[in-house]
Amino acid sequence: MTTLLLVEDDEDLRDVVVRALRNDTVQVIEAEDGVAALEVIDSQGLPDLILLDMNMPVMNGWELARVLRERGLWHVPVIVITAAHDAARSAHDIGATAYLGKPFDLATLHSVVASALPKVSAHV
Ligand SMILES: [Mg+2]
Predict the structure, then answer these.
(1) Which CATH number characterizes residue 30's domain?
(2) Distance between CA atoms of 2 and 59, rounded to whole angstroms?
(3) Is residue 121 domain-resident?
(4) Ligand 1 mean position to 13 CA, how many Å?
(5) Separation of 15 CA from ligand 1 center, angstroms?
(6) Residue 1 CA to chain centroid, in angstroms?
(7) Range(s) of the domain holding residue 102
(8) Ligand 1 is a single-atom ion; what residues have CB below 5 A from it?
């Protein structure tokens, strides 16, 4: 089973992404902010890929990236999901693998996820 961790405060967007990516071999775990994401990682270990919104209450994407680096947990591919005009810069700022500018279509979602995580490309 491939595990994706989706860190995003917009519940409607989470629903769209989960429905698009979840299948028999891909599990999508949802976290509504960075603190919730850390709880998932602490209890279940690192996922195979993190989809990370930058602007979130409680703990945003920049803060979560910093904590993961401090803990030596930055060896997982991370796709930044944020407003299109900020996406490339935000991804560069935190050293993310790839980015997805909002709004995005499902074909783009699939192709960015597939390229960030080649081993699940056959499944997503
Ligand atoms: Mg947000």
Answers:
(1) 3.40.50.2300
(2) 25
(3) no
(4) 9
(5) 14
(6) 17
(7) 2-116
(8) 9, 53, 55-56
Q: Could you tell me the pLDDT band of residue 79, with boundaries at 50, 70 and 90?
A: very high
- Is there a domain that residue 51 lies in? yes
- Is 27 among the domain residues? yes
Distance 81 CA to ligand 1 centre (A): 9
Q: How many CB atoms lie within 10 A of CB 14?
A: 19
Ligand 1 centroid, distance to 65 Cα (angstroms): 15
In a domain, 80, yes or no: yes
Confidence band, pLDDT 50/70/90 cuts, at residue 90: very high
Contact of 2 with 117, CB cutoff 8 Å: yes
Q: Are 89 and 79 in contact (CB under 8 A)?
A: no
The structure's pTM equals: 0.93
Is residue 122 over pLDDT 70?
Answer: no
What spacing in Å lies between the alpha carbon of 3 and ligand 1's midpoint? 21
Work out the burial of residue 19: count CB atoms within 10 Å of its CB; fewer than 13 is exposed, 13-18 middle, 19 or more buried. exposed
> How many distinct structural domains can be found in the chain?
1
**Burial of residue 7 (number of CB atoms within 10 Å: 0-12, 13-18, 19+):** buried
